From TrEMBL, chain A:
It is an enzyme of class 3 (hydrolase). Residues 77-278 form the Histone deacetylase domain. Gene3D superfamilies: Histone deacetylase domain (3.40.800.20). It comes from the Bacteria. This is Histone deacetylase-like protein (Acetoin utilization protein).
UniProtKB/TrEMBL annotation, chain B:
This is Hydantoinase/oxoprolinase. Pfam families: Hydant_A_N, Hydantoinase_A. GO terms for molecular function: 5-oxoprolinase (ATP-hydrolyzing) activity. One of its GO terms (biological process) is glutathione metabolic process. GO terms for cellular component: cytosol. Residues 3-159 form the Hydantoinase/oxoprolinase N-terminal domain. Residues 178-458 form the Hydantoinase A/oxoprolinase domain.
């Protein structure tokens, strides 16, 4: 009987009865053909591969990551709770050492969901990786986490959630924001003042092939991970960088994806986007599974795979090399950049505008963070949604120092004295408490 | 009247039933070197002074296939596989005559690469030279499109008489299991054929002309004709026979556990409203993973004759059996000895049982009474623990829709039915430990034969419809028909029902026993460039395992 090298866990939750709408890319049969391929290959019969059932996460789990407006139930459906629960089930099995690594093949996706949630963005409502990571931090005491987002779209949701967290190294590799939704993720987006360089955004030009992806993995991603010394590595394994994807313009392949997985060695992979449901997903997912399990994937190829046609143009290669150099330079200077970001104990402001394309909501944020050399810093966000309401969200990071805790409580009390907000939230991560006023 | 016969590893049980009661029941030792003689002995005993014309139905369950696989007493088989992209098919090698060839079909059933005739011819030449008579042909995704298997078959049929094809065995997707299943069918075919032809001839000579049915692993039967195409389905029919024998005593509308406690092992099964649960894909046990429909049974090494030992200062039961209980002349203490010593069971030599208890007692520095009590309790609680684990496993089975995840059926056993020799003596204690009402199946020592006798004919079909390609098809049934874009769920259900009824009747079913059940229904849109191109329907329908009508043996 076939045996895998590594013990690999899989959650397969295709949500065959859930769609944004019937012809939307995020629809019922997105994982149908992947299921067919995985079943036909006999994946679940391989000795060493175990299928897990998703958990059902609850509002408390969401409240460690998000501020949902007006509340969790209004912006999620059961399928979101199961999807995040699928990632959580794999995460838990890894922490309990039942498996060496695992892959949550779940939908709906989550990497465009930001800290504050007024509705859906880029088919996402809650950030399934972040919800899982915070659950693992709470229950297993892990601290340092790397999230590598290889979805073709910038993982702007995860980027936002970990913008100020120096203990989470978030790396997004995506198609250049000037050519694709959501239009962000440029090299200069490096994280907040307390976490400069712990957000690395690697935009790649349209036409990037396997060569380019593997180049940035080897030359930028792996060296940074090695220095960061994470407790776990998470891969947001979106598959819309495939050469057949209808929404994007890249030339990645199943072989490339399997090799990327072998190099990256994620503990937990979570499916994100990927809308070439017949031509790409069955093969890419199979490649990722076999690579995680340490098995031979050399014969996992798409029916129309012609590597010579997917060869990357030389100007694209040069561009990628330059980008990689820029990233490496930022990474090297991250401590220096944090020093320069502002004086310890002062408050820094940031103004942002966020568009929720899935639900047609426009949000304006004013963010205030306490610059702190000891922790991720007290944070408040004044958020006005249109249509929608104005709220205040105060976040005390998990590793908060005493001064930041005090500051955060002051922010919360201060907000209560005005009548501007329909709701005021306090997310106290050290106490694992969430207060809604 | 009906005859049911279950030839097991150590003994054969047979019953003669009228529509009201068990007229005769017998138990004879199995002659493992000559199963045919064992079968003959059973018929001779059952038919003594009975007019053979009165027999309307004969159902036989044997260990023929199981034994020959275990003893490797099977024919060499030539296997041709066409895999295409994915896991290297060399990993699924069966036997010494295994030929991966070109060609590939994708998950939608579209041809990606054609079969190369020369490769097939070359393989055929080699297999002929090696004296191979039985061939298996398996293609990846052949349940979606069997054309490659059919092409290979059409080349090979000039060279070989007996060729088994993958798309015939199941509509389920699992290429490695499909290979294993086809291989098994081909490997046991000649033995199966010779055996049952001999049985039929002999019964005819006795004037018994009723059609013979053969029990399958799913607790249903098939006629001889069907069995020649799928002889592998007879593997592991023994445990299924016992489960079927419990059905007359199972309450309606309840979840129940069926435990067959033997000397060496305990077999567990689950029933919902008198219908035993099936394995989701097929036989799932260890090396025997296949697409063969089977009842969901678990077998564990604990029974009346399990060896009792001391491990790290505590009593351990099983998993081995070292021989009979000491009370019956064995050398190692067993749970049976404990029950005899405690007076729960009145059999064998009690003084020998006491010796066994004393052995254990001295090692633990307790009294023989305490030792016997501890062994008995441990045995029963271990069995209860097994049932708990089985239910937990079934309930944690992954599901793929939000609806099933939230509302999916959860097994909640309300009664335990016990079968097997030690069962009557353990029932009270098992009930006490589990807190679940526990009863013993009447005539439990021949319940397996009764189960075989009354099992209805079962089968399953899979229908695929694709309105974009304009086709509905059931490759297992050689069925393809064109459809229009207006094709709907109702149309799919109608075709499925028609195909299933036809298949069941051909396998020997009688119309009144056709209890059909929809086991899977999926309907999906095919969308390209944001517009609807068509729909896919996938339907699986089965004749549920259960008992034939007209026989009321319930207590
Ligand atoms: Zn994407
Ligand atoms: Zn601080």
């Amino acid at each position: 009987m076939l045996k895998s090298d590594k013990k690999t866990g899989l959650v397969f939750f295709p949500a065959f009865d859930w769609a944004i709408d019937p012809t939307h890319p995020e629809r019922e049969e997105r994982l149908l053909y992947t299921q067919d391929q995985v079943m036909e290959e006999g994946i679940f019969d391989i000795n060493g591969i175990t299928e897990y059932k998703p958990e059902l996460i609850n509002a408390d789990d969401i409240r460690r990551t998000h501020f949902c407006v007006p509340d969790e139930a209004s912006v999620t459906t059961e399928s979101h709770l199961i999807s995040a629960g699928g990632a959580a089930a794999i995460g838990r099995a890894v922490m309990e050492k039942e498996i060496d690594n695992g892959f949550a093949l779940v939908r709906p996706p989550g990497h465009h969901a930001m800290r504050i949630v007024h509705g859906g963005r880029g088919f996402c409502y809650i950030n399934i990786e972040a919800v899982m990571v915070e659950l693992l931090r709470q229950q297993y005491g892990i601290k340092r986490v790397v999230i590598v987002d290889t979805d073709c779209h910038h993982g702007d949701g995860t980027n936002d959630i970990y913008w100020h967290d120096p203990d989470t190294l978030f790396i997004s590799i995506h198609q250049d924001g000037r050519t694709l939704y959501p239009g962000s993720g440029f090299t200069g987006e490096l994280g907040g003042p307390n976490a400069k360089g712990s957000n690395l955004n690697i935009p790649l030009p349209p036409g990037t092939g396997t060569e380019g992806y593997l180049y940035v993995i080897k030359n930028s991603v792996l060296p940074a991970i090695e220095e960061f010394k994470p407790d776990i590595i998470v891969n947001s394994a979106g598959q819309d960088n495939h050469y057949t994807d209808p929404l994007t313009n890249m030339n990645f392949s199943a072989q490339g994806y399997a090799e990327l997985t072998t190099l990256l060695k994620p503990d937990i992979a979570v499916l994100e986007g990927g809308y070439s449901i017949e031509g790409a997903l069955p093969y890419v997912n199979l490649g990722i599974i076999l690579a995680l399990a340490g098995m031979d994937y050399s014969n996992v190829v798409e029916p129309d795979y012609h590597p010579e046609r997917l060869k990357q143009a030389s100007n694209v290669t040069d561009h990628i090399k330059r980008t990689s150099d820029i990233i490496n330079n930022y990474w090297k200077k991250r401590h220096e950049m944090r020093e320069k970001a502002g004086a310890n104990g002062t408050i820094q402001e940031r103004h942002r505008e966020i568009f929720y394309d899935t639900d047609n909501i426009f949000e304006r944020q004013k963010e205030r963070i306490r610059i702190c050399r000891e922790c991720a810093g007290a944070l408040e966000i004044d958020s006005q949604a249109m249509p929608g309401s104005r709220i205040m969200a105060v976040h005390i990071p998990l590793n908060a120092c005493h001064a930041c805790k005090e500051t955060a409580y002051d922010m919360f009390e201060q907000a209560k004295t005005t009548k501007k907000y329909s709701k005021i939230f306090l997310q106290d991560r050290p106490k694992d408490e969430y207060i809604c006023f | 009247m009906i005859i049911g016969l279950d030839v097991g590893g150590t003994h054969a049980d047979a019953v003669l039933l009228s529509d009201k009661k068990v007229e005769r029941s017998i138990k004879v030792p199995t002659d493992t070197s000559n199963l045919f003689n064992t079968v003959l002995t059973c018929f001779n005993l059952l038919l003594e002074n009975i007019k053979p014309q009165l027999i309307q139905r004969v159902v036989i369950s044997t260990t023929l296939t199981t034994n020959s696989v275990v003893q490797k007493n099977i024919d060499p088989v030539g296997i041709i596989v066409s895999a295409g992209p994915g896991i290297d098919p060399d990993n699924f090698r069966r036997g010494n005559h295994y030929y991966p060839v070109s060609g590939s079909i994708d998950h939608r059933g579209r041809e990606i690469k054609p079969i190369i005739h020369g490769e097939i011819e070359a393989a055929a030449e080699k297999m002929k030279k090696d004296g191979i008579k039985y061939i298996g042909v398996i293609g990846k995704f052949s349940p979606r499109n069997p054309s490659h298997e059919i092409t290979i078959h059409s080349i090979l049929k000039h060279h070989f008489d007996t060729i088994f094809m993958g798309h015939k065995v199941s509509g389920k997707l699992n290429f490695p299991r499909r290979i294993a299943t086809v291989y098994l069918n081909a490997a046991v075919f000649s033995m199966h054929k010779n055996f049952f032809n001999a049985v039929t001839d002999t019964l005819k000579q006795k004037g018994l002309t009723a059609p013979i049915q053969i029990l399958k692993a799913d607790g249903g039967t098939m006629n001889l004709h069907t069995s020649m195409e799928f002889p592998g389905q007879t593997i592991l029919s023994g445990p299924a026979a016992s489960v079927m024998g419990a059905i007359p005593h199972a309450p309606d509308d309840k979840d129940i556990l069926v435990l067959d406690i033997g000397g060496t092992t305990t077999d567990l099964a689950v029933m919902v409203n008198k219908a035993p649960l099936l394995e989701p894909v097929g036989i799932g046990r260890g090396k025997h993973k296949s697409l063969i429909r089977a009842l969901h049974t678990t077998s564990k090494g604990i029974g009346g004759d399990s060896e009792v030992t001391i491990k790290r200062g505590a009593i351990a039961i099983g998993p081995d059996r070292k021989g009979p209980a000491m009370a019956f002349g064995g050398n190692t203490p067993t749970p049976t000895d404990a029950m005899i010593y405690l007076g729960i069971m009145d059999a064998g030599d009690k003084s020998l049982a006491e010796k066994g208890m004393a052995q254990i007692a001295s090692k633990l520095e307790i009294s023989p009474q305490q030792a016997a009590e501890a062994i008995f309790t441990k045995t029963c609680s271990k069995i209860v623990e097994l049932t708990r684990k089985m239910v937990e496993r079934i309930n944690s089975k992954p599901v793929y829709t939000v609806h099933e995840f939230l509302e999916g059926y959860k097994i909640n056993p309300q009664q335990i039915l016990l079968l097997g020799g030690p069962a009557p003596f353990m029932a009270a204690r098992i009930e006490e430990i589990s807190g679940i009402k526990t009863t013993v199946v009447p005539m439990s020592s021949v319940a397996n034969a009764i189960g075989a006798a009354l099992a209805r004919t079962t089968c399953e079909i899979s229908l695929l419809a694709d309105t974009e390609q304009g086709i509905e098809s059931a490759p297992e049934e050689n069925y393809t028909e064109t459809i229009t874009r207006n094709y709907r769920k109702d149309d799919a259900m109608k075709t499925a029902q028609k195909l299933l009824e036809k298949k069941a009747i051909q396998s020997g079913a009688i119309e009144e026993n056709l209890e059909l059940e929809l086991t899977e229904f999926q309907e999906f849109n095919i969308v390209r460039r944001f517009s609807l191109q068509g729909k896919i329907f996938r339907v699986k329908m089965q004749v549920k395992p259960g008992l034939i009508k007209g026989f009321s043996l319930a207590s």
